[in-house]
Design a protein that fits this description.
228 residues; mainly alpha; 11 helices; 3% strand
């Protein structure tokens, strides 16, 4: 029995090391090469094709300099105001989110940074487990240590969900405004940033009162957002 437990533990250690090495290799590759998909995109495509086998994602990569600075500022203002200052985790934001959730008695706010969100989107499933949070933290540290803030933001803006089957800034700009990611104005950018927490809902409820209110708040904060 003891020998079996030792072998099982060794097998687990080997698996963890191999898996972390696999993630490390991907992060290293993406320093200079663009990802053509993500774990979350693949999950969404599977769900969509279960309903319609011919379903496809709307997605087109665009480089950092072809994404409107308004959108960059809006997303930072909405999702991670300290993005250029922290090393992957906004501890003040996490504490505030915890206190807000405790007060409400349910999860109404998150403290995830852009780097943490990117870690989840690129590699992890949608299941909430303690292991998943630990893995998210490990991947976040890899991203922060190996990539520049500019590169993290560039990938993030290209892979996040912005509607039902809509991924990335270029597809979102075309889907909602019939323009390019470079052509987005301040109000358009703020509205897209306001959609990030619940994009599929806002895709079908574009006139939602809460969306308009959030757009106004983000517009007021955009000029204070620092870009990498």
């Amino acid at each position: 029995m003891k020998r079996f437990l030792i072998r099982a533990l060794l097998a687990l250690v080997v698996f963890v090391v191999l898996y972390q090495s696999w993630i490390f290799a991907h992060v290293w590759w993406w320093i200079e090469h663009n990802p053509d998909s993500s774990a979350f995109m693949e999950t969404r495509l599977e769900i969509m094709q279960a309903k319609n086998p011919e379903a496809e994602l709307r997605y087109k990569w665009v480089p950092y300099n072809r994404i409107s600075s308004h959108l960059k500022r809006a997303v930072i203002a909405a999702e991670d105001a300290k993005f250029t200052d922290h090393e992957g985790f906004d501890w003040d934001g996490i504490q505030k989110a915890y206190e807000k959730n405790l007060k409400k008695g349910r999860i109404v706010a998150g403290g995830s940074t852009i780097s943490q969100q990117l870690a989840k989107n690129l590699f992890l499933s949608t299941r909430r487990t303690p292991w998943r949070k630990l893995e998210e933290a490990a991947i976040t540290l890899m991203l922060e240590k190996m990539m520049s803030k500019r590169r993290i933001l560039e990938i993030y803006l290209n892979v996040i969900e912005w509607g039902d089957g809509v991924f990335g800034a270029e597809a979102a700009a075309q889907h909602y405004y019939k323009t390019s990611a470079a052509g987005l104005g301040p109000e358009q950018a703020a509205k897209l940033a306001a959609m990030v927490p619940n994009p599929r809902y806002y895709d079908s409820h574009r006139g939602a009162r809460g969306l308009a209110r959030k757009t106004g708040i983000i517009m007021a904060r955009m000029n204070y957002a620092d870009l990498p």
